[in-house]
Amino acid sequence: MRTSRSLAVKKFCRTISSTGIQASDIRPLPVLRETMDYLWHLLNSSEYPFEIVHDFIFDRTRSVRQDLSIQNLVNDQAIGIYEDVIKFHILSHQRLARSCQDSDASSLCYLNTEQMMKCLLSLFDMYHTIHKINSQSNKEAEYYSFFVLLHMGCKIPKMANSLSFWYSQLPASIVRSKEMIFARTILRCYHLGNFKRFFCMIADEATELQLCLVEPFLNEVRARALMYLNHSGYKLQHHPLTHLSDILMIEELELEDLCRICGLEISRSGDTKAFAPKQTTFSLPTPLSKSSGIYISRE
Amino acid sequence: MEAMHMVALEIRLLAEKADRELVMSGKNPDKLQAAGSFLMKVFGALAVKGPKRVGALYVTCQLFKIYFRLGTVNLCRSVIRSIETARNFDFEDFPVKDKVTYMYYTGRLEVFNENFLVADQKLTYALMHCNPQSESNLRKILKFLIPVKLSIGVLPRRTLLEKYNLLEYADIVTSLRRGDLRLLKQALDRHEDQLLKCGVYLVLEKLELQVYRRLVKKIHIIQREKEPSKAHQIKLEVLVKTLQWLGITMDVDEVECIMACLIYKNLIKGYFAHKSKVLVLSKQDPFPKLNGKPV
After folding, report:
1. What strands lie across the sheet with B270-273, from one edge to the other?
2. InterPro entries, per this entry (chain B) (predicted)?
């Protein structure tokens, strides 16, 4: 397929020095907005395999961000563009995790998360800047919550500063927003081992993007739940899978697979499948296969 | 050396004043940041072999104050590394006052990073060596030391909290003693802003597990008085009802999750029976002491 003026989008290229760049090389804001809209359209309509589309948009959005930062543009529209780029990364985060199970693709996931993080941190700087002129984005709280939710995944890049410190620097109105309280609470439930509330809250309160973001982490959470139940349960009273599948919001067949991956033997008595606690063969697998989301059983 | 100390202190104070004025006239406050860069150079000049190096800790502390004020605490890392790799420095040579301030700030950084054992060591050092007349300094240290101590199971007396005006922790301590989950949540809620700003909110939030443990222990004690032979078995329903009485709605599944976690983390010894919905405590030492290890 050949390219054309209407199809070609400027590539990302690492600038070594700013002396070679001319003003005519940099796209102004309206053009960048059009570019974003075009890329967005591509994301939803392309017939190419997702990895290829992702790769293209990843590169081109990076170039858009570069043009924005060279011009030092910090205003509502620039923020809108950044918010859209992050949206792309989040949707990719979910789709890549679902479609890829091998190590090649997992490095794609890692790079995507890394870029998402960079983008989020730049966006937060921009939010901070417009606060000074008494303006704010109406999506702020949600985008701040993404940073918190990323702390659930292990091996997330650039988490050098602590979350405690990060909260201490945020305005109270953000930290106490609905979206942030959601993120803070499920992170707390995760650390406290309250899996029931963890999954219930996600099912009831997560926004669409929040759900996309946490989805790839869910199987790790479920594996930990199995670990606690296996460790602390009574050997002679088996834990039925149907009950677990309700609490952990995962389809029973997928739960069976997960148990097996963790080294848990499934016992069968009549129609019910269960696992007996205190199995010494249990081990938390790393890396874990990514889940296909929240399954809510219908009564 | 004293002259240098004076200069370092005045630079910071003047820069803070200058920034306040810049903000009031709508300009960008960059004087404190500049003071920081300047003091880094001063530090570099002192970090050499020779008698000058004893002054370096004082400058370090000024830098800490600047970085904490500006929120750029990641910049503390390089000075800390210089001080602690100790090729030019012997920590014991520094004046006590500077050591106390240094331990206070590095202790606070450890609190941010949730390294509670190290934070305990540093803040306790600061407390022990702090001038006993300086109540405001003692208060500052205790403000961060108390949450750390709570997380390893050491509770302060109310008299301590009253003496140093740290009553925001009073209800939290009470909730730990009583196993009162509702009180913990209320206390965290009431002081949320302040606790978040200090960076101790997450530390205190995690105390929830210890409060559950205390609650279970209380139920165990009550059961032991009523029917000693069956005391080590606690029906999960009883826990649900107790929590309900405290105004907290939790179903049996949720309680089971939490019990599983408490057992896993060795806060409770025993197991839970899923089908019978019973928590069975070990007959020996069902509530092992935390022993100074964070949960």
Report:
1. B233-235, B278-281, B270-273
2. Csn12-like, PCI_dom, WH-like_DNA-bd_sf
Contact B260 A172 (CB under 8 A): no
**Span A153-172, pLDDT tens digits:** 755 554 556 889 999 999 98
ipTM value of the model? Answer: 0.88
pLDDT, averaged across chain A: 85
Q: What are phi and psi of A47, to 5 degrees?
A: -95, 5
Give yes or no for a cis peptide into A287 (omega within 30° of 0). Answer: yes
Average pLDDT over residues B255-276: 94
Residues facing residue B234 across a β-bridge = B279
Chain B, residues 71-90, CB within 8 A of chain A, namely: 71, 73-74
Residue A157 lies in a domain: yes
Question: Shortest Cα distance from A215 to chain B (angstroms)?
Answer: 21
Q: Are A83 and A144 in contact (CB under 8 A)?
A: no
Instruction: Give residues with Cβ within 8 angstroms of B67, minimum separation 6.
Output: B36, B73, B75, B76
User: Which class is B210-281 in CATH?
Assistant: mainly alpha
Q: How many angstroms separate the CA atoms of A111 and A295, rounded?
A: 28
| Angle subtended at Cα A62 by Cα A58 and Cα A66, rounded to the nearest 5 degrees | 175
Two tokens, residue A91: 């949707």
CATH 1.10.3470 fits B1-204, yes or no: no
Residue A299, pLDDT score? 35
Query: B residues 212-271 near A, CB within 8 Å?
Result: 251, 253-254, 256-261, 263-265, 271
**CA B88 from centre of chain:** 31
Q: Which of A87, A212, A213 is nearest to A156 (CA)?
A: A213
Cβ–Cβ contacts within 10 Å for residue B107, how many?
A: 24
In this structure, are residues A60 and A108 in contact, taking their beta carbons and an 8 Å threshold? no
Q: What is the pLDDT of residues A208-259, one digit of tens each?
A: 999 999 998 898 899 999 999 999 988 888 999 999 999 999 999 999 999 9
Looking at the domain assignment, is residue A83 inside a domain?
A: yes
Query: Of the candidates B114, B192, B272, which has its C-beta nearest A233's C-beta?
Result: B272
Q: Is B88 exposed, middle or buried (0-12, 13-18, 19+ CB in 10 A)?
A: middle
* Whole-angstrom distance, CA of residue B50 vs CA of residue A56: 58
- Compute the distance between CA of residue A54 and CA of residue A289 in angstroms, rounded to an integer: 20
Q: Judge whether A53 lies within some domain.
A: yes
Does A254 lie in the same domain as A205? no
Q: Which residue of A has its CA nearest to B189?
A: A176
Yes or no, beta carbons of B206 and A191 under 8 Å apart: yes
- Give the number of domains in chain A: 3
Chain B residues in contact with A267 by the CB 8 A cut-off are none
